[in-house]
Amino acid sequence: MELTVSHWIYLAVVLLVILGMVFKRGVIAVTVIGTLIIGWIWSGSFVTAGQTLFTANLTAAKILFDIILIIALMIALLRMMERVGADYLLMRPMSKLFKSPTGAFFSVGAVKGLISAFLWPTPATMTVGPMMIPAALRAGLPMIGIAVAMNLFGHGISLSGDFIIQGAPKLTGQAAGVPVSEMIAASWPLVLVTGLVSVSLAFFMLRKDMKRGVITAEIPEQEAVRDTFSPVAKTAAWLVPLSFVAVIFTTIWLELRGGDATALVGGVGFLLLILIALGEFKTKAHHELMSALQEGFVFAIKIFAPVIPIAAFFFLGSPEVAPQILGEGAPGLLFDLGTALSTIVPLTAVPVAIIIVTIGIISGLDGSGFSGLVMVGTLAQALGVPAGVDIAVLAALGQMGAIWSGGGTLVPWGVLDISGVTGVSPDELTRRNFLPVMAGLLAATVLAIFLM
User: Transmembrane region positions (predicted)?
Assistant: First the structure.
C-alpha cells in the first residue's frame, strides 16, 4: 500500500492530539485545522475544504445526536423530579442501608453507580450526594471513603460500560466499525474485572488507613428533613424506577439492542417527564416542561460540544465514515496507516493491547473521557485488522482506558463534581484512586489479551 500526503498529515495531527492531551492543552483547534488541510489536499480546492470542514462536523453531529438527545431527556427528567421532591423520596429509603463503614462504602457506591447508569455520573452526584453523605458519615465512613466509592462506582464502573444510555459503546463502536451490541458484549468482562480490582484495592487501602488512624470519620449532627410531599412526588418516586426496571426487562425479553434499546429508554424517560409535569403543575406544566428540557439540552450540548470537532477529524480515519465526508472513494486514513504499520512491525495481541489502553488513558487526560473514544475506536480498527485480533475487545479496552482516566477518576479536573459535593480535594481523591484504577486497567489489559 502506498501512503499519500493525506495519510502523513493525518498521522501528524493524531500525534499532535496525543501530545496536546499529555500536556493538558486544548486539541480542538488542531483537529479543525487537520480536517481543513486534509479536505483541501483531497479535493484540491480550498472552497471544497471549507465545505468539508462543515460536512465533517455535521456528519459527526448526526452520528452523535441520538446520544445527545437521550442525555438531554434524562437530565430534564431529573430536574423535574428535583422540582417536585421525588428525587429525595427515591433516595431516602436507600440511606437505611448504611449500618457500618463497610456497608456505607459499598451501598453509597452501588446507589451512585445505579443512578449514574441512567443519568450519567455528574448529575447523579448531585442527586445522590446531599442525601447519602450524612447517612454514610453517621455509619462511620470517612468523607474520602465516600468520595472514592461514588467516584469508582459512578465515573468508573457505570460510565465505562454505559450499558443503559449506551453513549460510550456507540461512540467507540461507530469509529471501530463494530455494532453496539458487540461492543457491550466485549466490554462487560473488562468492566467487571476493572471494577472488582479497583474497588477491592481502594477499599482495602481505605480500611488499612482507618485502622492506622491516618483518616478518621466525622459524625455529623442530625439535620432537619423535608416531610411534606405532593401525591405526584410520591407517585413519581416509585413510578420512575419501576418504569426503568420494566424497560430493562423489556429490552432483554424483546432482544432490543443498540438504537432500539436507546430509543425505548429515551421514549419512556420523555413520557415520564411529561406526566410528572402535567400532574404537578397542571396549567403551568408547559412552562416547567420547557424549562426542564432547556436545562437538559444545555447540559448535553455542554458535554458534547468539544467532542464533535474532535470526532469529526477522527472519523476521517474510518473507512465507513470517511466517504460520507470526503466523498466516494475516500480511504480510511488511520485504517490505512495501521495496515502499513503491520508490514513494518509485526502486530500481535500484546503490543496492540498495550498501545490501545495507553492511548485511551492519555486521551482522557483532558478530563473528558468521551473525547478520546472515537480515536481509540478508530485505532482499534486500524491496528486490530492487520493484527488479526477481535476488534470489539480491543476497542472496549481502549474505552476502559479513556473513561476510567478522563471520565473522572485519575485527573483532578475530572472529579470536580465529587469534590464539590464532598469537600474532598481533587488532588487527594485522584491520588487515592491512582493505584487501584491502574491495577484495574492492568487486569483488564491482561484479560483482553486472552479474549482477543
Answer: 6-23, 30-54, 60-81, 102-122, 186-206, 236-254, 260-278, 299-317, 337-361, 373-397, 434-451
Cα angle: 350, vertex 351, 355; to 5 degrees: 120
Burial degree of 345 (CB within 10 A; 0-12, 13-18, 19+):
exposed
For 210, the grid coordinates are 482507618
**Are 107 and 67 spatial neighbours (Cβ–Cβ below 8 Å)?**
no
Distance of CA 301 to the CA centre of its chain: 15
The pTM assigned to this predicted structure is 0.73
Q: Give the Cα separation of 210 and 143 in Å (integer).
A: 12
Instruction: Give domain status of residue 96, yes or no.
Output: yes
Q: Is the pLDDT of residue 259 over 70?
A: no
Conformation bin of residue 85: beta by default, left when phi > 0, alpha when psi is -120 to 50? left
Contact of 335 with 319, CB cutoff 8 Å: yes
Which of 259, 271, 247 has the alpha carbon at shortest distance from 170?
A: 259
Those residues whose C-beta lies under 8 Å from the C-beta of residue 441, and which sit 6 or more positions away, are 194, 357, 361, 400, 401, 404
As for how many domains the chain has, the answer is: 1
Q: Is residue 105 within 8 Å of 149, Cβ to Cβ? A: yes
Residue 223 lies in a domain: no
Is position 350 within any domain? yes
Percent of all residues in the chain with a pLDDT value above 90, rounded to a whole number? 30
Q: CB of 315 within 8 A of CB of 59?
A: yes
* 406 touches 160 (CB < 8 A): no
pLDDT average, residue stretch 283-312 = 86
Residue corresponding to grid cell 468521551? 370
For the stretch 196-216, pLDDT in tens is 999 999 999 999 999 988 777
Among 145, 125, 134, 127, CA closest to 95: 134
pLDDT top residue among 394 and 296: 394
Residue 358 has pLDDT above 90, yes or no: no
Nearest Cα to Cα of residue 425 among 117, 215, 183, 239: 215
Whether 220 is in a domain gets the answer no
**Helices assigned H by DSSP within 139-228:** 143-150, 159-161, 167-176, 180-212
Q: Which residues of 315-325 are buried (b: 16+ CB within 10 A; e: fewer)?
A: bbbbbebbebb
**Closest alpha carbon to 56 in 377, 380, 374, 406:** 374
Categorize the per-residue pLDDT at 226 as very low, low, confident or very high, splitting at 50, 70 and 90. low
Residue numbers of the domain that contains 169: 5-215+229-451
